[in-house]
Each structure stands twice: as C-alpha cells, then as structure tokens.
Amino acid sequence: MAARKTVPSGRLARTAESSSTGEQVDVAVASLKRMATKKVRDGMARYGLPSEHALGVSVGDIQKLAKSLGRNHGLALALWETGLYECRMLAAYVDEPDRVTPSQMDRWCRDFDNWGICDTVCFAMFDRTKHAWSKVRQWANRREEFVKRAAFALLWGLTVHDKQAGDEPFLEGLAIVELSATDERHFVKKSVNMALRAIGKRNRPLNRSAVTLARRLAATSNDTARWIGKDALRELDSSSVKRRLAARD
Known about the structure:
- This protein is an all-alpha fold.
- It folds into 2 domains: 1-95, no CATH class; 114-249, Serine Threonine Protein Phosphatase 5, Tetratricopeptide repeat (Alpha Horseshoe), CATH 1.25.40.
- Helices cover 69% and strands 0% of the residues.
- It has helices at 9-18, 21-35, 38-43, 59-69, 73-81, 85-94, 102-111, 115-124, 132-139, 145-161, 168-180, 186-200, 204-218, 223-236, 239-248.
- The model is unreliable at 1-11 and 13-18 (pLDDT under 50).
C-alpha cells in the first residue's frame, strides 16, 4: 500500500503566512484529502459519527496538520464555513481562544450535529475562552440536544483546563448537573454523567460533593437520573480515584 502524502509543515506555514484565507483553506482541504482513508471514513459509523460530510482523516492527523498551520482565527472561521467534518475539527485546533466571541460560540454551537464535533470544540478551544462559564449556564437551559450536550462537555473541559478556578463554580456545576439529570436523550445524559464524574475527580472536597449528588441521583425513581448516579458512583467512590486525589493533595 502506498504511503499517504502529506504537505511538509514548513510549506504549510509559509503558505499560511503569504496567502489569502481562501487559499489557506484550499491548502488545508487538499492536505486533509491526501491524508484521508476509506477505512477511517467507514469506521466513523461505529462511533456514532455521521460520514456524509467527512473525508476520513484520523484525529491524530488533524492535530498534526493543525500544529503545522499554527493558530489563525480567520482561517478557523473559514474552515468552519466549509461544513466538512475534518475542517470543523481542524478549526477547533487552530482558532485563537482570546479572539473568540460569545456570538461565534453560539453560532458554532447551533451547527453541532454530532458528539465528535461538539466535544472537540468544547474541550480543545471553547473551554479556553473567557466566556466559557457563562456558556455553561446558558446552554444548559437550551432544548437542542447538542447545544445542551455542549454545556456539559464544556463543564467537563473546564475541570481539566481551568487551573485558576476555585471550587465554587464547580459546585454550581453540580447543581446544573442535578437539574439536567432527568434528560433521557442519549447524548445529553452521557454528557451530564461525564461532567459529574469530571468534577468529582478535580479534588477531594469536590469529590465528596459529587459523590453526595451521585448517591442522591442513584436513589431516585427516574431511570435516567438513577443510571447517571450509579455509573458515576462506580468511579468516584472507588479506591483508585480516592488514592489519586489524596496523592494530588
């Protein structure tokens, strides 16, 4: 089998510096097409990812391409507008968080139509913006499935990447988790569970609060809330998590 062709990183960087945004998009799309494989594209269905607007490029290859391109807000906006799955993934890695506006976040969030794009954008870029916490609160109240999932994917990302935050916003996050714990839609309940578990692994005080909430959910009569609570408890109340948190302290 012939090796996949890639554009040398030096050439990509020079192109990005000297060409228009439209030309940069063309170069990026051409590079993605060269890296695409039928195997990756066909395999997307196994993970619940739609492939009708996808080329078939692995996340690792997208990240390598993003690194060679460097941060570029204008390019990220243009890549997003192509509608291609890989271009939107690439946009999450090349955008500049300091230049992202609340309206851009809302606009992109409305375009989310699968968990891969939703989670990648939230975890790789949105959670690094200064608007992240306000969007958690706003989106958690929305009805659209992937907008609501974005609230909890963003909350999960903040547990990892917001090193300066104290416990208070995460305690508020637990309250938001409880309010949404009865939403039975697959991609929402999975993200609510994910956020609960992530908060409970940030430090020991938050672990205690998350375990308390998980036990309360596990004891309810609602099937979805009960599943979220029981599943989270298995991890948060485990000896391995408690040892890790104690060692971190």
